[in-house]
Each structure stands twice: as structure tokens, then as C-alpha cells.
Amino acid sequence: MAGNPVVQGSDEPAEKAGMRNAWGNIAVAYDEMFGARMTHLTGRGLDLLAPEPHWDGLDVACGPGMTTWALAERLPEGRTLGVDFAEPMIARAQERFSNPRLSFAVDDAERLSQPTAAFGAVTCSFGLMYCYDARSALQHMARVVVPGGRLMVLVWGRASQVWWSPVIELIETRAEYYASVCPMMFFYGLPGVLGRMVTEADLAITYDETIDEQMAFPSIDEAVDTGILGGPLAGLYTNRLDAQHQHDVRQLLTEHVSGQAETHGGEVLLPAEIRIVVAEKTPT
């Protein structure tokens, strides 16, 4: 079921290789800082996907494997594969999750090596935004879905409603490095955008909605640490910013987060708007 692993070619942009390395370097940090706080978000998407128990599943851009594991639990009669382009993420997932029906492999969302019409359920949770060719990624995801099967794609919503969004500009402007995927980070969450792209991949939309969610933290400081050190710009922050710039980033993000925070039961709750699209491949 894993297919042939993708071999990175000389035609790959250096920036994409850099993004892969950036994700690889934070495999543990992302898992520990973001992972558990996002399971309720991906859980909403899986509820809407409503996969059949006997289907095989594929989780694209699986990271450290949280969504893959949750998908596998909903496919007790099938097999589930998680793929990611960063080897350390796959290693982290393999370390964390063990199940005879669950496996992980290195593969690139934009040129999946998986067989055509091989999976009843295909998911991509918080991964599409980091693709350099999102349309190619969606076309490949649609290709590997069996007729009658379903795809679930989950992305962040509007930047103003995602608590950590300022961290991109705060770090990139001071590091004087701009990743081409970052301006698109919240584009796919705008009304109508993701649904249109999925439709262009010849899938029929069954659910398309923005949902207001929150992420919980024990303190503002921990949220700020997560926003800065739990994402792929952590390397820029650590290696390209001097002490003064690091202080400025932290102070400005703290001010932003403090302005958005709600408190409940001793926790700090921050806005995490998401957009979920579920689509079906119509049987021919």
C-alpha cells in the first residue's frame, strides 16, 4: 500500500528543500507544542468525513501522525498510511504510534507515489497551506481516492481569527527571508476558495464550512513559545535573529495574544478558526 517512495529531484526548488528541513528540525517540538492542542480540530474534520470502517485510509502531510492515528481508529477493518515529505516527522510518528494496521512512509503531497484509486478515505489536516503547488497536491489526493470514497481537507481560517498568524511577518521581516508559501497560508481558508479548488480536482463537495474553534494553553507565555518555536519559522527565529530582534518578536506576539485571549477554568483560550471541506469521488 505504501507505493514507491518519492526521490527528491534536481527540479525541486531550494526553498522547498529548506521548508522540508525546517519541518524536520521541529518534529518533536511541533508534536509536543501543537499536537495535543489540535486533536479536537482534526476530530471535527474526521467526524464530517465519516469514513466506512472497511475503507483503507491515507493521511497526507501527516507530520508526527496524530491525524493518522485518529483516522486509523475509525477504520478498524482497513489499513491506514500516513505520509509526509520530512523524514524526521515520519520517524517521530513511527516512534509514537504502533498498530499492525497503521504505517508511515516518506512521500510528497505534490507528487504522491501512491496507487490510483487505492484509498476510501484520504485526509490532509493543516498541510495544504505548506504546499508549493496546492492544486497538484489536491489532484493527487483526488486521484488516489476510490470511486465513492471521500477526501477531507482542513486548513486554517482567516488570519485575523488565528491567534498565531502575526508570527510569520514578525519573524520573516526581521530575518529578511520570505517563504513563498507564507503569503498563501490563510488564503485557502477564505470563503469559497478551498471548495472551488477541490471541485476543480473533479470531486463533489459534501461539506464546506468555516468553524470557530479555540486552542487552550496554561499561560500566555506558553502560547507565545508555541507560536514561535513550534512552527517551521523556529529556525529563522533561533538562527537568524539577534537577541534584540528575538525580544521584539516575543514582546509583540505577547501583546497580540494577550489582546485575543479569553480565560476559562484556569486556561487561556485563543481563536483558531478552521475551514473544513469534505468531498466525494462520484462513482463512474
Which descriptor suits the 3D outline? globular
Per DSSP, the total helix count is: 10
Q: Uncertain spans, ≥5 residues at pLDDT below 50?
A: 1-9
Q: Name the beta content range.
A: 15-25%
CATH superfamily of the domain at 14-159 and 179-215 and 272-280: Vaccinia Virus protein VP39
Spell the H/E element sequence: HHEHEHEEHEHHEEHHHEEE
Oligomer: single chain
**What is the CATH topology of the domain at 14-159 and 179-215 and 272-280?**
Rossmann fold
Structural class: alpha/beta
Cα radius of gyration in angstroms: 18 Å
Notes on the protein architecture:
It is a single chain. This protein has 284 residues and is of the alpha/beta class. The chain has helices spanning 14-25, 27-49, 66-73, 87-96, 134-144, 167-175, 193-200, 220-229, 234-240, 243-260, and strands at residues 57-60, 80-84, 102-106, 119-125, 145-156, 204-211, 214-217, 262-264, 267-271, 274-280. Strands 3-2-1-4-5-10-6 form a seven-stranded mixed sheet, with helices on both faces. A three-stranded antiparallel sheet has the order 7-9-8, with helices on one face. Strand 1, helix 3 and strand 2 (80-84) form a beta-alpha-beta unit. Helix 2 packs parallel to helix 3, helix 6 runs antiparallel to helix 10 (243-260) and helix 8 crosses helix 10 (243-260).
